[in-house]
Structures are given as structure tokens and as C-alpha cells.
Prior knowledge:
Strand order of the largest sheet: 13-12-11-7-10-9-8-14
Oligomer: single chain
CATH architecture of the largest domain: 2-Layer Sandwich
Strand content: 15-25%
Largest sheet: 8 strands, mixed
Number of domains: 2
Order of helices and strands: EHEHEHEHEHEHEHHHEEEEEEHHE
Distance between the termini: 37 Å
Bound molecules: nicotinamide-adenine-dinucleotide
Helix content: 25-40%
Amino acid sequence: MKRLRLGVIGCGDISKYVLLFARLNRHIQVVGCADIDFERANRYASWFKGARAYDDYIKMISELDLDAAYLAVPHNLHFPIMKDLIEKNIHILCEKPITISLEEAIYIVDFAESKDVKIGINYQYRYDKACYRLAMAAQKGELGEIYYGICNIPWYRDDSYFKNSSWHKNIESSGGGTLLTQGSHALDILLWACNSKPVKAQGMIKNMKFRDVEVEDLAMGIIELENGTVLQVTSSMAALPEQSVTINLYGSKGTAIYRGPSFPRVKFKSAKVSRHRLNVFGLHALDRSLRAFTRWVLKGDIKYHITGREAISVLSSILSIYESAKTGEVEKVKL
Ligand SMILES: NC(=O)c1ccc[n+]([C@@H]2O[C@H](COP(=O)([O-])OP(=O)(O)OC[C@H]3O[C@@H](n4cnc5c(N)ncnc54)[C@H](O)[C@@H]3O)[C@@H](O)[C@H]2O)c1
């Protein structure tokens, strides 16, 4: 397999981990790193032989012949940067969420499909072995009819979270708080497992701990799917101490109970479940996500687990929960 010529746009917190795994991957050649903070771009570029640093991603994508770009910037920049990448026929691994509005997301996936550009959204829990087993058990009917699912993300953030990346504070740049940024990973797994369109949502959001930021630090939502299954999500940045994510599914043949993402594990009660193994190997879910994206782009023999189009339902569910929190009404999930 040839090597993927990868450019990185946004050299902040998460890029550090993804690039750590890129360094271990002989199928990836990081050829450029771009960040408006040139020092950051330079630091990350220095990890890769021959990689160049840029303070302007437009310059990078014009000068380097990229196969793909990894995008890890504030949420409101996902849309304009992806648009520029698609214009240049560059495949994209974009951090979640795909965009901050449904209109932008639909525009981007239509545009990418018209140009045969592949977009993967890095919801890497889909490459967590235990989440995968839970989702496949549900999809294959091993849990029977799914009655309901519940996920809880009781996480903790201190002041440094908003100080170090101030874009998280504002709705305009982030699009939302803990539900969009953290809870969306687990909600995505429930939606994937249930494989049915979200149709209605209701929710409540609050600022329990961080009173001077525009985005919520606590969100609770309920979603009804087309097949009648009901999902519940709670996401928080205010739980002390931070605790594991749980994702539970309750079906007519049994129950699945997930805890993670550190030392991820899933237990099945009553149901008989097959092994369901991922089709990529790697040290961590982020590593496997990056490997799967690389193979999807270079060889095309496997599909990346979450394409841009598939990432729309978690975004639209969350936007409907936010809308319901404002109106106090049950909202339709627009898809
Ligand atoms: N998959 C995960 O588990 C995970 C975890 C954390 C963050 N994320 C996602 O990654 C993305 C980035 O989050 P982060 O925590 O790394 O944020 P961060 O603030 O640490 O990094 C963002 C970087 O983008 C740079 N940037 C801003 N505007 C830019 C531009 N126009 N061109 C190039 N670079 C620009 C900033 O200078 C900064 O270095 C978000 O979408 C976030 O939701 C995903």
C-alpha cells in the first residue's frame, strides 16, 4: 500500500494524540502541519521528517500535493475549511461534530459526494472494541427488539478547559457545550446500535458550574427513533470526580452494559452475543480510527465506520435537544 500524504490543520490538544499514532503508522506520511499559531504547527511538523509548517492552511493545501487532511480546529471552522479541501479534491478526516448547523452539514456531504471526496468524522468510539461489540450485537438482533438505551457522560472540566481553548466558551465558535463536544460520542454509539432514524427530541440544558460561559455544562435529552426505541443522554462537565462513560441498551432478549473509554468493557446479560471483532488493529480507538480512515482512502477495501453523511443524525438530534431546551416543546429531528 502506498503512503497517505497527510496534512494536519489545527495543531492543538487532540492533534497531539492523533499525530502520536500517525508517527507509529507506516502507511501515513505527514507532509505538512498548519495552525494560525505557527509555533504549534512547527512543533508538530518537527516530529515528521520533511514535514513543513504553515500558519495558513490555504498555503499548505496549495503547495503540498495532499491525499488527505486531518482537521482539528474550532467547530465553526469545520465547514469553511472542509469546503476549501473538497474544492481541491482532498479527502478529509474531520474531528466531531461535522459542522455546527444542519444546513452546513448537508451542503458539505452533498458537495463531497459530487466530487468523490471521502469524509470521515472522528467519532472514534466506533473503533472502541467494546462499543463495537455492543453496536453489532444490537444491529444483528442479538439483543432482540431494543426498547430503550441510556448513555451517561459524567465528566469533569476545570477552568483551564475554557482558558486554554477559549473558543469552547462561545456558541458562535463551538455551537454548543458538553452535549455537542463530549456526549455526542456516546449518543452516536446508541444511534449506530439502534440503526433507526431519530424523529423527536426533548431536552434541558443548564450551567451548573461554569456560569460565565455561553455553552451548557450539563445537558439531558430524550430522543425517540422511527422504530419506537427511546434513547436518553446525560452529558456533563461538572461531575467530581470524573467518572466512566456508560452506554446501556435494553432489549427483548437481553441487556448490554458498556463502561469506558479507559479500560473499555461491555457485559451482556441474558443475551447470547457473538464476538464481533473490528476489521482494523491498533493500540487505541484513535489509532484504529486513523488506520481505518487511511485504508478507506488508499485501498478502499473497507469502509470507514462513520462518514460525513452518517454523522448528520447525531448532530441533528443534538440540535433538536438544544432547540427543545429553548422552547420547552418536543421538537422534530430534522434530517
Ligand atoms: N475525538 C476526540 O476524542 C476529540 C477530543 C478533543 C477534541 N476533539 C475535537 O477536535 C477539535 C479541536 O479540539 P482541540 O481540543 O484540539 O482544540 P484546541 O483549541 O486545543 O486546538 C485547536 C487548534 O486549532 C487552531 N486553529 C484555530 N483556527 C485555525 C485556523 N483558521 N487554521 C488552522 N488552525 C487553526 C488553534 O490555534 C488550535 O491550535 C474539535 O472539533 C474538538 O471537538 C475531539
